[in-house]
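Replying to the earlier thread about multi-chain prediction with a worked example.

Input:
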Amino acid sequence: MSYWIHILILVGIYLILAVSLNLALGYTGLLNLGHVAFFGLGAYTSVLLTDAGVHFIVAFLAAGLVASLFGLGLVLITRKLKGDYLALATLSFHFVIYSLLLNWVSLTRGPLGIAGIAKPSFFGFSITSNTAYLFFVSSIALITIVIIYKIVSSPFGRLLQATRDDELGLRVLGKNTTKLKAKAMMLSAFFAGIAGSLFAHYITYIEPNSFTLTEIILVLTIVIVGGLASIKGTLAATFIIIAIPELLRFVAIPSAIVGPSRQILYALILLMILLYRPRGLFGRIDLT
Amino acid sequence: MMLHVEQIYKNFGGITALDGCTLSIEKGRITALIGPNGSGKSTLFNIISRLLKEDSGKISFNGQDITTSDEVQVARQGISRTFQDVRLFRNLTIQQHLEIALSDEDEFLLKSLNKKTDHDQKIKEILHLVRLHKPLQTLATDLSYGQRKLLDLAIAMAKPHSLLMLDEPVAGINPQLRQEIKEILRTLHQQGETVLLIEHDMNFVMDLAGYIYVLDAGKVIAHGEPRKIQQNPNVLAAYLGE
Ligand SMILES: Nc1ncnc2c1ncn2[C@@H]1O[C@H](COP(=O)(O)OP(=O)(O)O)[C@@H](O)[C@H]1O
Ligand SMILES: [Mg+2]
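Result:
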């Protein structure tokens, strides 16, 4: 039972991460491979601030804001790039952040990581039990989904989708697509940042290797399997992708194989989707 | 004078697309820009709407120099245009396209979350005018070529503007629909619209435009009222030599 609570907490965190990536990727068409860097920035921001005695709530929101500011920077630097080039540039952004976390030892303790991270406490409560954490994470995930749903179904969200479909066509209608993309990326990064905070204070240990390329591929797989520009799809896919591989544990195979076979399973799911359901489970948008 | 273009030059590598092009658009009139394929018509549109930068020359729109503006700014200053190859947002519906064109506050997230201004009435009028009778929730990607041309025209009309620039609105369209689009343009003219219209086919604009410019190899080789253009030997030669 407690094991499944652990899995559900991870589902909640990845849900926030994946829905926010879908805002940038599926709705706005920004092929951002740097999303996990926002996640890591949020985790470190939150941990460093709470370690310095800052209140958890403040650190939690700061995690989102710091990620958001980096999101703004990323959009401004890459504003002339599209498609594959944007993907490459955002991927190098990921590596820049990764090496920053690894090499700025005086701040981040580098490869040693930061251990013994405090569980969140606010308004006199301390969230120590996993059940309480699950409740906390689920609430934040729910709020995130509601907010992102409101955004994408608003007139503003309509413009994000138009930017994705034909940026130039939208500019000649007098809409400043650079600002739109910046706003979308900042919102997307904000939620990745708070997901990072939730992750760090749950696992209570972070190191740069918590935020690697494997994580990007995982989140990307969730979004693609669920379908671009579909929140319902991301929801379903997060459960499928995070929870199903856990079943492997109950199959009698040596643990040395469980790790790699999980990667193989992700790859298989992704391949099946690309071949037989290129729009994902619930997507309306083509992958091109 | 609504729009004045003076001595515009534009080269692409070795190709001269515009070679000192000068023209003026008067308010409330349909002005046609005709000429053989490759004579520089679309390039001139792109320069006026700031998608391309001229090598040299001047452009003023409603008395303002717009050569320092970008495409978003001139759009906001009141230029609305279509493209020779229709540009639509493939995953959006007819209604969403027109809402985007008609809204002016949708770029602000918070305003956009709170306010639900819809333009149902206006959208109905515009679709009626262009005679696009499809359910509002139809996706752009599910429209036929002709319907896409009509939606494209509707969007350009819906976007707030003082000058409407149409790049070959009837290209590749069947004779009946061509006639209908001509009627739509006449209605626009009656409503006082100022239109700059690119058309390859001279006959289409003869009984529609109030004034015609003929472009050949990037130069205006003739301009005037339709009847005079029709008889101009240079114009006939340009078309024959195509
Ligand atoms: N982006 C471009 N790059 C290179 N050459 C171009 C470009 N756009 C137009 N041209 C060339 O400029 C000339 C004028 O083209 P265009 O303005 O499209 O003519 P029209 O619209 O009158 O048919 C043609 O020779 C065309 O090949
Ligand atoms: Mg052309």
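The interface with chain B takes residues 150-151, 154-159, 161-162, 164-166, 168-177, 179-180, 183, 187, 229, 284-285 of chain A (CB under 8 Å).

Feel free to reuse this layout for your own posts.
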